[in-house]
Description:
Layout: H1 5-18, H2 23-30, H3 34-41, H4 49-59, H5 63-67, H6 81-87, H7 91-110
Amino acid sequence: MALxxxxxxxxxxxxxxxxxxxxxxxxxxxxxxxxxxxxxEAAISRPSLETLVDIANVLNISADDLxxxxxxxxxxxxxxxxxxxxxxxxxxxxxxxxxxxxxxKAILYGLGV
Length: 113
């Protein structure tokens, strides 16, 4: 299966924006040019494996989160509705919602669901 570089670029851009990083700030952390990141996000250029790992580390996500649509056996939740909702939250909202989900899961477990 070929990698979907368009989806990868969009996902990198989405995670970068959700992290509050401009392309310039992102490039500084990665030690690459803005043009290179712009081309990766637009699927004009393909990132090396090393760059892909650096991108995941800077964004504090897993490589699975970036490659979810290209993997046959991925455990990533990057494309789940709850993940998309959490990306749109600030840190306090994420903490509150995470606690609520944990409590709801415990209740469901207690009910045998």
